């Protein structure tokens, strides 16, 4: 093919005809790939017409210059050739020499004597040419070629450096400078190196190139760059035009590129530092930024000798150079323009300087070490400048020194917990200033637009997010200071909080800005995170005498022990009396004083939404304090109920207040005066009106019902109010009639909504509003039920309270909805949600509705609902237990069949794989729930027993799912339970294992012997015991992994369950049958049985893990090396 055909292909590559364009692009891509065949033609196309002012004009060779597109393609072909070492090595010496000479001739013709690629594509072509020249320089470097050329052979760069004469032709100078920058990037740039695949060959080549250049080209290259830099800067300052600015910038970029890898004694001299300082003070803004970047590169230069690094940093005199610049630009900070950008870059330079000083000598170095002393002195001199940047009004500038901040804090951190750190007066003064700067920086900006969400159109969410991120980082720094000097932290922070509260209390909002008030409350909220003592519970707020603490601890321990009775059931623990403590009479701790001051200051009345909302965050976090100081509950509730809280006009604030109000009421309900409940409910009533929001349809196939229920909305927050209603009504337990009246007042409007919209909604899926009203009403009823406590065994044994009738009525309404609307998924979801919560509250008193409910759900649900349905069944089983036998008997097989029908479907992507994994886990949890509810007899009913072996085999299959240890753990847990349930031999010779109190201890408790399956022990010995060895012995089982160790715990539990069920027979079968069948040495078998008998579960797991590892290693040694992990 001649050049005309290739040029034609380039032309049609931009054709409007897509088919032609695709063919041309495919062809040109092939040309680049096969560069070793096409490079002569490509080089010819690029060189034609060199020196011509533009394409289509005739150059010095008498030919027309080709189009820019064709010439760029030609350079891509050459780049592909020169960048591929095997292809370059395959070139003959003549070809390499010809290519180099061709490009040198081109530079002479086009740049030295020609128009230097003028025109709109000048910069593109110049950049491409410089990159090609850099690749050509590296690929043709004399000592890197094979065989290497004499070291006296001039390199391409040496020849190009001769052409650097800015006073004659700045275009040539710019080309050479660009080439130097490209060489730096190819040979050293860490960012580019990290972006490309690492190879040993490339790494060694780059290292050798740098070594060679240090000896050969470096001096001339450095001299040329400084000469150009100085001359061009002088011409620019002399008024010869801004055109010289580009020359200066590229000279400095070239210099900054080789500084990290050339000898510092050559590159960093009084002359070069003088030039950098000239740029740092220059009126041309890009020069100032460029000088800061180069100084950062010099500062970060790696050096082995700490003493030499100290000398370098001392020579740079960074602090002296930057201090006046920081001071002169401080007044203009915060305008978002050049000043902020300059200050940010300046702060980054200081940040690098501080971190490098910290690296020079480790903290454990001797105090009298000269280098350490000098480094610490330099660091101390930089601290005032550091504080100025840290406190800068711009978040970007402040964040730029966070690395130095972290380094300072890390180096001063106490060596070990509880050890006092003796700070010198100067260090203590610094940390005091640092803490004050950090706290000031943690304030919202004076002109900041505060917002919680996107409802404020004028608020920039990115700006809010940046501030929150910065505040989180600064809070970590405060925590570190608290760890370094607790007294300093306590004094400074508590003083700020208390003085802010006192000023507001005496002067109102006029004496305190909203930013100060919000910060004070944020620090109150964070106090427990800052506290170095980490005192938990009520002792954080009051000083509890030691004898009272001991009595409380003893009572708590006894009550916890009484919660678990010998048969595994729970009781109330009421037989153990609580210790009565008059907390109101106890003196407050500092945190308690801060909280009482927070309430008494009435800071929640501040007329800015950020302040009361932060107060509510504090109240919800420190509810335990309010339970001791019940006099603080009512005023806090008052502020939560009015326009500061749940009646706030800002939707985002109101919705957050809904949650905080719910959390506060939930946590203080035991201390809440029941006489307050009616007025609280009355204050909430106007917010309980349900108003469904119908989202906009974005595509014809979009399901608006699903979108409306899955998209976050105000109703999600409103559900917290409905749950709070249930909590408050439950507080009225001592006034059953009043409690019933309020519950009816809350539920009846929801029932009315369901009734009035049911007929409309059931007529079809088009009336979105009516369907959503029914959905929301059911969800609201479920949340009201959720607010009621779970009944104790004693409560279930007593007569049902009057309010049970209301929840029965609610359940009947849910069933009526399902009867008419169970074809609508969101309705099924809401019904399942609400019924589950009513079951939790009413327990067996709604048992009569379970069968009808399950029938209404199971006939229609989609595969995607099966996981939630299985979870729902597990909850119902847990609450109603043996009362559900008949319902479960007819449900087990259809559910299992549905599960495996779905699991048999092919997996077509990540989503399918995740949903299948979730279904497997839900299925095993369902089986475990049946066993845990002691309803395992359902598997032995005439309906289900024929499928029992298949069910067990499936569980065994999941136990062998090596990619999912969660499934394996669940499966082995089930196998332990079935072993106890169906294989316990009450007449067997008992064996008490270490760590147990008798049969079944530390394993699943034995069930009535009427459930024992004759001969089931054979299944255990034939299938389960081998499984216990096969799974952990498989190389696919990552035995060192933490989750795998949880599986190992369940494997050990299965071993122990077999012994608990079969007694001495288990040891006889293992020792006499199983181990001989696998050719296990008798001494190994005996050791296993002895360890199983004498070690507790935890220690036997450790022993068995090592046992398996040894067996795997031995097997690997006899076969071939197998990588365990």
From TrEMBL:
GO biological process, one term: tRNA re-export from nucleus
Ranges where the Exportin-1/Importin-beta-like domain occurs: 123-294
Limits of the Exportin-T C-terminal domain: 370-532, 592-1111
Keywords in alphabetical order: Cytoplasm, Nucleus, Receptor, RNA-binding, Transport, tRNA-binding
InterPro entries named in the record: ARM-like (IPR011989), ARM-type_fold (IPR016024), Exportin-1/Importin-b-like (IPR013598), Exportin-T_C (IPR045546), XPOT (IPR040017)
UniProt xrefs under Pfam families: Exportin-T, Xpo1
Single GO term (MF): small GTPase binding
tRNA-binding among keywords: yes
A cellular component annotation (GO) from this entry: nuclear pore
Lineage: superkingdom: Eukaryota
Localization: Cytoplasm; Nucleus
Function: tRNA nucleus export receptor which facilitates tRNA translocation across the nuclear pore complex.
Family label: Belongs to the exportin family.
Name of the molecule in the record: Exportin-T
